[in-house]
């Protein structure tokens, strides 16, 4: 048997069991041995029968003292026998498991584990697990700490446990080491085969801790090493010029509002970094609408004032355009030059921007992925800002910062992530949290509605539009291909224009439009010349039109919670009461739960927690959103100390042998290739 063999090659595994295993994502022998327990039952505490008490879950040693009887009572088949150890007797019962008669041998000593109850004044143990012991009471195999797996109804703990145990006996010699010896010694990591065996069947507490530490280290180390390779560099605190002038009061006069306390605190943190003489590497986390843009503007302002350029990268054309407009409005009157760079500019326009960036005529450039093209170079790049960063590939932000020397970076996101995940993805970075919304924000009232309510929904839209306010209608992708989707939304918009919303100014925005067309539509909407904007999800992130008060989301069940929250954040930005209407006929449990959550809270933090829960255990840490593999054993909340060691180890390794070409690293290289075979291109920051 090989680790790569399919489970069907294991003795006693037929099609049925293979299917059950597949439902646990176990396909090969290797998957099976790496299917780690979710918990353990400590059965080192073995009681005598006399010590058993009703209500306990206990482990005790006893002989089967009688023949196992099988009885029928109504629809139940009851198997019953008597257990005894010389200190007392206890009855054992199993329901609907008549084969117990053959499984238990009279006179044989077993170890039983189960819940003790009291029936008619007699102690009983119900459906206990059991395993035979040697006559001297010693276990036939392994220690007494028993693994508990996540499993399905039809595949019992016992069967899964036995399966893993027997497979391990077979393949342990094949559990090859791939962490280089030097690292293993330096970080005191036990060998792989010891770790795999002891994670399933720990001999004692100490071996369990050693095994777990090794496997957590291994999991994070593989990931971290792969990420370093993807990034192609090591981000370290590098020296950088110290900013002298940190007075941003001229900027404040140009903003139409006072900063919130949280914004001010974040700016102070940025200024401290700017003055430190080391490169800033800072993440700003703040719920939608908390005002991250103003913070970015002030950071850009200070950078320009100190003689360097700023680049702001946004994930979509629409968002880049909006930022460009906002920045130009504030900065151009102060004599600070802004430019837009997206791939849909004409060639000539692009070249003009390239030239102006190179000779320093542009102070702040705002764009999309177009910013990372080779043709882009700066006279003196001082600050890179990425907005809604989780949309970018790992390498992309690095490429941008490499276009200058001693570049500060600022990453902005509305999606909270655990500190450990931030560390894994961004390396050593500092985090500022904007935990305060600007004053005067109205709560957004959210309703979930069936399509049967369309007449009322359209009536409400008309009512709001006639009161001078604006409405978004979001249509997610429901057709298989973009062409059909485009047709569907185009028809929908036309239908509304001529039917239910007749007389209102209804326009369409979609991803296939040219930059200019998108810009025109967004500008018209921002000016109030469009009442209802029907849009595909290009609108999702960042858009800011305070007069928009209604967000209608069609097929709302198509979106995850975070996306819904982002979308809803497009309204409630002005002084008028705002509404979000989630339209869905879905009866799916998760979908309904999501809609319910949306209706009950506006708190981004609560929503992201719920989101993690609803995504299920495999994606508990939100790693999938970033394209990372599921964590099999590492706990991203608790294993931060191991992570720090891993980071140190992978950086050292990367310094000495970035491509893992050396012989001692060959196994590691192979393992990384195997694990990240496909999908690493999807890893995003
Ligand atoms: P996000 O953090 O989601 O990117 P924005 O930066 O787009 O949010 O800001 C949302 C809205 O709040 C904008 O209209 C912005 O002008 C406004 N805003 C930002 N800061 C303040 C503040 N301190 N007081 C009032 N309004 C503010
Ligand atoms: Mg934003």
Characterise the protein shown here.
There is one protein chain. The protein has 685 residues and is of the alpha/beta class. The chain is built from 22 helices and 22 strands. The chain has a seven-stranded parallel beta sheet with strand order 12-13-11-14-15-10-16, with helices on both faces. Strands 17-22-21-18-20-19 form a six-stranded parallel beta sheet, with helices on both faces. It has a five-stranded mixed beta barrel with strand order 3-5-6-8-7. Helix 17 (515-527) links the parallel strand 19 (506-509) and strand 20 (532-535). The longest helix has 27 residues, at 205-231. The radius of gyration is 31 Å and the shape is globular. The relative contact order is 0.09. Magnesium ion (MG) is lined by residues 292-293, 387, 542. Adenosine-5'-diphosphate (ADP) binds next to helix 10.
Relevant terms:
685 residues, 22 helices, binds adenosine-5'-diphosphate, 6-stranded parallel sheet, globular, alpha/beta
Brief account:
By secondary structure, this protein is α/β, with parallel strands linked by helices.
Percent of residues in β-strands: 15-25%
Mean pLDDT: 88
The parts where pLDDT drops under 50 for at least 5 residues are none
Global outline: globular
- Portion of residues within helices: 25-40%
- Side-by-side strand order of the widest sheet: 12-13-11-14-15-10-16
Gyration radius (Cα, Å) is 31 Å
Query: What ions, cofactors and ligands are bound?
Result: adenosine-5'-diphosphate, magnesium ion
Distinct helical segment count: 22
End-to-end CA span: 40 Å
The helix-and-strand class reads: alpha/beta
Number of strands: 22
Describe the main β-sheet briefly.
Answer: 7 strands, parallel
């Amino acid at each position: 048997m090989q680790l790569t063999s399919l489970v069907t090659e294991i003795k006693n595994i037929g099609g049925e069991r293979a299917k059950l295993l597949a439902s646990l994502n176990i396909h090969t022998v290797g998957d099976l041995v790496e299917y780690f327990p979710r918990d353990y039952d400590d059965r080192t505490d073995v009681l005598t029968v006399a010590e058993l008490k009703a209500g306990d879950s206990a482990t005790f040693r006893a002989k089967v003292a009688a023949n196992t009887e099988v009885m029928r009572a109504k629809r139940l088949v009851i198997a019953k026998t008597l257990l005894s150890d010389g200190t007392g007797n206890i009855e054992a019962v199993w329901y609907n498991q008549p084969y117990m008669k053959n499984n238990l041998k009279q006179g044989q000593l077993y170890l039983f584990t189960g819940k003790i109850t009291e029936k008619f004044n007699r102690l009983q143990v119900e459906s206990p697990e059991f395993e035979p012991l040697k006559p001297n009471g010693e276990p036939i195999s392994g220690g007494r700490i028993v693994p508990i797996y996540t499993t399905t109804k039809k595949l019992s703990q016992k069967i899964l446990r036995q399966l893993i145990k027997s497979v391990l006996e077979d393949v342990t010699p094949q559990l090859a080491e791939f962490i280089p010896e030097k690292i293993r010694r330096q970080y005191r990591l036990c060998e792989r085969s010891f770790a795999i065996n002891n994670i399933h069947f720990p001999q004692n507490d100490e071996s369990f801790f050693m095994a777990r530490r090794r496997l957590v280290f291994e999991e994070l180390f593989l990931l971290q090493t792969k990420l370093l390779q993807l990034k192609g560099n090591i981000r370290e605190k590098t020296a950088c010029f110290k900013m002298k002038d940190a007075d941003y009061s001229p900027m404040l006069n140009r903003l139409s509002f006072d900063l919130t306390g949280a914004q001010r605190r974040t700016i102070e943190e940025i200024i401290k970094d700017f003055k430190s003489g080391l490169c800033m590497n800072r993440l700003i986390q703040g719920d939608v609408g908390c005002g991250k843009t103003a913070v970015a503007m002030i950071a850009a302002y200070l950078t320009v004032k100190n003689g360097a350029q700023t680049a702001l990268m946004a994930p979509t054309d629409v968002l880049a355009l909006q930022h460009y407009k906002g920045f130009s409005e504030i900065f151009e009157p102060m004599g600070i030059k802004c430019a837009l760079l997206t791939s849909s500019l004409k060639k000539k326009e692009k070249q003009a921007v390239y030239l102006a960036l190179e000779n320093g005529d542009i102070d702040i450039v705002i764009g999309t992925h177009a910013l990372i093209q080779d043709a882009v170079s700066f006279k003196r790049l001082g600050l890179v800002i990425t907005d809604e960063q989780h949309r970018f590939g790992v390498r992309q932000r690095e490429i941008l910062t490499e276009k200058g020397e001693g570049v500060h970076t600022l990453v902005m996101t509305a999606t909270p992530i655990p500190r450990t995940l931030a560390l894994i993805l961004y390396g050593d970075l500092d985090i500022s949290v904007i935990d305060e919304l600007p004053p005067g924000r109205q709560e957004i009232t959210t309703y979930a509605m069936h399509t049967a309510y369309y007449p009322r929904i359209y009536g409400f839209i008309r009512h709001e539009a006639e009161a001078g306010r604006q409405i978004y209608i979001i249509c997610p992708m429901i057709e298989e291909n973009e062409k059909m989707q485009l047709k569907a939304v185009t028809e929908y918009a036309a239908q509304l224009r001529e039917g239910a919303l007749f007389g209102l100014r209804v326009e369409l925005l979609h991803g296939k439009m040219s930059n200019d067309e998108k810009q025109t539509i967004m500008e018209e909407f921002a000016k109030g010349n469009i009442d209802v904007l029907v849009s595909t999800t290009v609108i999702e992130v960042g858009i800011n039109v305070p007069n928009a008060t209604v967000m209608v989301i069609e097929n709302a069940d198509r979106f995850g919670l975070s996306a819904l929250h982002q979308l809803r954040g497009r309204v409630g930005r002005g002084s008028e009461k705002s509404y979000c209407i989630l339209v869905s006929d879905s009866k799916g449990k998760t979908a309904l739960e999501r809609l319910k959550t949306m209706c009950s809270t506006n708190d981004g933090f609560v929503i992201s927690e719920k989101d993690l829960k609803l995504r299920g255990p495999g994606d508990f840490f939100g790693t999938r959103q970033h394209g990372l593999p599921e964590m099999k054993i590492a706990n991203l909340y608790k294993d931060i100390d191991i992570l720090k060691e891993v980071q140190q180890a992978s950086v050292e390794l990367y310094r000495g042998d970035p491509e893992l070409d050396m012989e001692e690293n060959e196994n590691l290289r192979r393992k990384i290739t195997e694990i990240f075979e496909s999908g690493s291109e999807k890893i995003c920051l």
